[in-house]
Amino acid sequence: MSGKCVLFGDSKPFLPPPWQTTDDRVRGGSSQSYLTALSNNGARFYGNLDTKTLGGAGFASQFSPIGAQNYNSTDAVTSQEGSASEKETVWDLSDYDGLQIDLGKGDGKTYTFILKDETSDVKRDDGREKAGINWEVNVSAEKDGVIVWKTWSDFKAFYRGREKDDAGKLNRSQIRRIGLMMRSYFGTQEGDFSLILNSILARKNDDNKLLYRGQDTKTVSLDIAKTSSL
Question: Mean pLDDT, the chain, as a whole number?
Answer without folding.
Answer: 81
